[in-house]
């Protein structure tokens, strides 16, 4: 299986089409080239800008969310350029070199971009206003702005702590000692980024360990960061402040959260056998793989290696008969973005899949519990939910419905995947949002055998 099928980086008709229709197909095969990790891409542009010297980034995700972060860093005074070979170069100015932007920073759909950059601005003597799209403007920001205000930043926001938010950063930020109610890498990262300039040690404690890419990258740039996990799962991070970051090259691994879609598509469609090379294997991101294997998924990992300081492996996925399981609450942080596609997988499993401890899904790009459950029910599936859990019982899916993405890329890709196994095709509107994290999703899927068409075209 050496042939690389469907590899494409140019903008094409499918990636610009807003309404897509997904039909049944004869199985997926070949190699699937998933794009770069979104979380690591954001952080590489931000930390590259805060460092002194030139950072070269390979494998950067060229999705709308990451572009928004890059543009915001430019507005803060950092020069970022794309080289002909596809690598990106960030000319870091050091924390002292950032300046107040002349216009509001528009982070579009990106929760990670806006929250991490709020942390950056809060710890520097600069002022910025943050705004975003309809979805981002509905999402809670007080979980980040409250601890940043405790560090000395002056912050105003729309009612309810929503965007637009204006932050006048602290000239001499206080070190943080924050205990978060939720395991959130965005909250943790915002505080750590503000803590770079604080005198003393900033600490963040979270109930479970959320993804630790900020901690790893801060160390990669020369900062002193320690992490400890207590017997009850509580995670504690400490950053030594007044850190001077030195530029360092970064190789971004391929995104396990994007790999989730072709993985589930291959498991569900008879005849499938695909390989996804070089996928990030940070153990705080691999909860879905564990879950799908427990459900009976034929998923094999090989060539485990370290590339550019990140653990990666190749993943081979074959069509499998799945069965329902209970997904424990303490796994939620390691697969928080993967519940929509797991729920789709569960519609095709024998028996019932219970997902617990998933309340955080309610404050993502959409209320993902409600939007996934309503969509599955509309397509003919069986699903129940409450504030903190979702239960899906496997059954044939009629399809023949239109699902609105509601500015949520993972909702759009999840229901296009469901359309591959429903009796009648599933139409998804608002597919432009897929460009935030996975610009060539439909083209790459079709290159491996899927039948996703623009509305009006024949599949
Ligand atoms: C992200 C953290 C996660 C995840 C988001 C990306 C990050 O959110 O949902 O897509 O890059 O820090 P929380 O950990 O804040 O819930």
Write the layout of secondary structure elements.
Blueprint: H1 13-16, E1 20-23, E2 29-31, H2 38-50, E3 52-58, H3 64-75, E4 79-82, E5 88-93, E6 105-106, H4 111-122, E7 127-131, H5 142-150, E8 154-158, E9 162-168, E10 177-179, H6 185-195, E11 201-206, H7 213-220, E12 225-229, E13 235-240, E14 250-251, H8 256-268, E15 273-280, H9 287-294, E16 298-307, E17 310-318, E18 326-327, H10 339-347, E19 352-356, H11 368-378, E20 382-385, E21 389-393, E22 402-404, H12 409-418, E23 426-429, H13 441-447, E24 451-454
Parallel strand pairs: 2-15, 3-14, 6-7, 10-11, 18-19, 22-23
Antiparallel strand pairs: 1-23, 1-24, 3-5, 4-5, 7-9, 8-9, 11-13, 12-13, 15-17, 16-17, 19-21, 20-21
The protein binds shikimate-3-phosphate.
Provide an overview of this structure:
It is a single chain. This protein is of the alpha/beta class. Helix content is 28%, strand content 26%. The protein is built from 13 helices and 24 strands. Helix 10 runs parallel beside helix 11. The protein is globular, with a radius of gyration of 21 Å. Shikimate-3-phosphate binds at residues 39, 112, 184-186, 189, 210-211, 336-337, 360.
Molecules bound to protein: shikimate-3-phosphate
Residues in β-strands, percent = 25-35%
Percent helix, as a range, is: 25-40%
Note the overall shape.
Answer: globular
Number of strands: 24
Give me the number of helical elements: 13
Number of domains: 2
CATH architecture of the largest domain: Alpha-beta prism
Structural class: alpha/beta
Terminal CA distance reads 26 Å
> How would a textbook summarize the main sheet?
4 strands, mixed
